Amino acid sequence: MKVIFKLMVVMICMASVVQAQDRPQVFEGAEIIPITGEPISNGVLVVQNGTITAVGAAGSVSIPRNAERFDMTGKVIMPGIVDTHSHIGEGDGGDRSAALHPDVRILDTIDPRSSTFIKALSGGVTSVNIMPGSGLLMSGQTVYVKPKPANTIEEMLIIVDEETGIYGGLKMANGTNPLRADGSPGTRAKSAALVRNMYIEAQEYKAKLEEGADDPEKMPDRNLQMETLVEVLEGKRIVHNHTHRHDDILTAIRLADEFGYRLVLQHVSEGWKVADEIAASGYPASIITLDSPGGKLEAINLVNKTGGVLEEAGALFAFHSDDPIVDSRFLRRSAIMAVKEGMSRDMALRALTINGAMMMDIDDRVGSLDPGKDADFVILSGDPFSVYTHVEQTWIEGEKVWDREDPEDRKYATGGYEIYRAAANHHVHMEGH
Amino acid sequence: MNSLINRMTKMMTSKRNMWITFSLVMMGLLVGPLTESADAQIAVKGEIVYTIDGDPIQDGVVLIRDGKIERVGSANRVRIPSGYEVHEAKVVTPGMIDARTVVGLAGYYNQQHDQDILETSNAVQPELRAMDAYNAQEFLVGFVKSKGMTTLHTGHGPGAVMSGQTMIVKSTGRTLDEALVDSTTMIAITLGSRVRSNFSSPGTRSKTVSVLRQELIDAQAYADKRAEGEDQSRDLKKEVLADLLDGKVKAMVSANTASDIVTALRIQREFGFPMVLEGAAEAYLVLDEIKASGVPVILHPPMIRPSGEVKNASVETAAKLQEAGIPFAFQSGYEGYVPKTRIARYEAAIAAANGLGMEDALFATTLGAAQILGVDGRVGSLEQGKDADLVLFDGDPFEYLTQVEAVIIDGEVVYLRE
Fold first, then answer.
1. Is residue B254 in a domain?
2. For a Cys-Cys bond, which of A156, A411, B90, B122 suits A145, CB 3.0-4.6 Å?
3. How many whole angstroms separate alpha carbon B68 and alpha carbon A187?
4. The CATH number of the domain where B206 resides is what?
């Protein structure tokens, strides 16, 4: 089954590549922020077949003769924003029947036509880790997508591991969200014990799989939960662990160390208290900024200086929207609010792009403007750090997927797109995208 | 501090005990600098000073004396008297006004014990006073102050037909009395679908309106008798509603869909009370109707999450209200989760960047808000005689990376950036 699914995905991906424009596209005159190199004040970006083929200063890059040329004078071009934690797409996750649901896939429930995807594009977001919620210890498998116009979720997937068919991570949570007043887990210690028991079971299942490889008689029955956790134990599927309080952060680290899985710490509201420990652990952190503290008791000590403190400590971190907590349109703003509290501008741009891509194993495809990478980029009207700067265009794989000058697209940036009586035709428009 | 000094002076004058006198002199030396700061006359110099009631002044000076603005002008015309404590900044504005918040009543822990904005035993309780639930020392009050918000219109939240009253405070002071500007400013009224999520009745939008109208009709009879000097038993609810019908307090009607906005205007026409629209997410669909009514708008935060009744909120509505000539102000609103409060200045910034422009956004967060709240005689602009409420910025007040350097309220420096 998995192989068939994988093949379908590969075919669909190939189809979309074929659709991408063969004729080279050249974007000239803008300040280009490649992320992996210094900003280029009068830059040239060359794209062909959905892939970046060249980036450099004007005069240093040869322009293909038949290229379609775009004058971007006065604009700023940066890679598409990578959102490491979002709930767009209207999917769901595990239910209340148990605390652990590694078998559940959010992919099976996402609506590719959700207006939340267009809203994300209007904010310059081009890669998203869509996760199930944090009300369970394991609420299910996450999915890494590009929010481009599509009929099926398969068309939106960023990666499908050729060997395993893996297209996302696994959502875990600790702290107060998964606790039950009238059930289990009722405490933090029980939460950790439930998770550890599950991974021990998965270790045993993995051993049986290895035995079964030599002796088919010994092959265990298929078990969706165990199969997923074996992927985690083998380092093929990354765990995204919701965690707020400093001690919960350390517990998440302790468990990942014990079982050797790859971990991204999500939220880390009190990360500023244990920044050195996070840096020493080697696990990256995906963080959020908010306009005021308060509102959620275990996150009461969330401060916007966390980014600066993690930068100082040398930890790898990225920003996330947790949409709808922060609207995807304001994710760029979130990183700027951290700059206001001490983080460097350079790090803000990295933490909106390449750092997040690294946390999803997609940094070979997205997160910077380098030859060979997907042509996913944002055209800004000016300084990325100014409130007066707008996203003007969002491009994914060489296709313009959002344009502020298009009145229908624009509504997703400004609001009011669900005024059915005023404009009932946005679905029509979507099909023509 | 003044009363302490007076007491000390009296005791020292009596000379009953040399040792006490000596101790007090030592204490006086210790508290001296603090005393000076609290009572100091202050001069604020700005590379640009936005007075709001006139053109911005390049290289401006604001002199502050005894908590009030003494003089405002350009540096080459206003001499700074000796002894004035001088503060300098790139940009100086009047203290900013949050035209609708719940800080002080809705605490940052967000636990039952610190949430006092909605009482659900009855859907009609206009008699609930904001001042009886205000925690002047609540964390978020100080937090919004540090962001430049000096005057707050705070009080009961939305969600009931009439949830209670609102009031105006400064974001400083240890107690209500030290903070209070106006004790009874508006009655918070909610139309639309939010009421039925808190009460079994009214359980529909139309029933909400009929309950509201009946209460006002009952109160009209009370108001009429009161006007004629007839004896009647005291009734807290009817007294405040009679005040509303007599135009002594305003109705702040939360309405977001176009139909609820138009209904709010219909009720206002029927009873003729002074009214302010709050929320108004779909105001851009009924601009003509709002304009004709003369009712001002306390606009939803532009960054509000677009779902439920506010799913059609737009970051461009402020610009459209401005263009239509409808008076409006910005608010932090009310948040049930994280962040526990928004910052009205940050919200205005999004409107500024989406068609409104910096100077109109600044007017709406200062004098425009003061006019809608009825406190423009005291705050909202840098004019001689007004309260000395100022914010010192290192740049455009709405730019993302701009920092608040200092906040001055009633002539006291209440926040200084580290």
1. yes
2. A156
3. 56
4. 3.20.20.140
